[in-house]
Amino acid sequence: MELPEDDVDRVSAIALRRGTTRSAALVRAIRIAFYLEEAAHAGSKIVIVDRDSNQTEITFL
Questions:
Q1: What pLDDT digit, counting tens, does each position of 10-51 carry?
Q2: Residues 6+ apart with CB under 8 A from 57
Q3: Contact assessment for residue 28 and residue 34, using Cβ atoms and an 8 Å cutoff
Q4: How far is 53 from 51, CA to CA, in rounded Å?
Q5: Per the CB 3.0–4.6 Å rule, which of 13, 14, 48, 60 could disulfide with 25?
Q6: Which sequence spans correspond to the domains of the chain?
Q7: Contact (CB, 8 A) for 17 and 24
Q8: For residues 3 and 23, is the Cβ–Cβ distance under 8 A?
Q9: How far does the chain reach from its first CA to its final CA, in angstroms?
Q10: Contact criterion met (CB below 8 Å) for 20 and 29
Q11: For residue 57, is pLDDT > 80?
Q12: Rounded CA gap, 9 and 33, in Å?
């Protein structure tokens, strides 16, 4: 599998932040994405609430 350079950089940043390998970071990202996609498909709303209590709903197309 080949990834665009900017995505490789993102995975590397996640791995560095979590103190893990790029492979582990990619596996985690895939699992999170799958969970969120399944929840959205089932009709759930995905909402991010920031530290100021501002809410942003994430929409999967």
A1: 999 999 999 999 999 999 999 999 999 999 999 999 999 999
A2: 45, 46, 47
A3: no
A4: 5
A5: 14
A6: 5-58
A7: no
A8: no
A9: 24
A10: no
A11: yes
A12: 18
Among 38, 39, 57, 37, residue whose Cα is nearest residue 47? 57
Locate all alpha helices (DSSP H) within the chain, ordered by sequence. Answer: 5-18, 22-41
| 61, two tokens | 């197309």
User: In one letter, which amino acid is 50?
Assistant: D
| Whether residue 55 has pLDDT greater than 80 | yes
Give the rounded distance of the alpha carbon of 29 from its chain centre.
5
Contact 24, 11 (CB under 8 A): no
Amino acid symbol at 49:
V
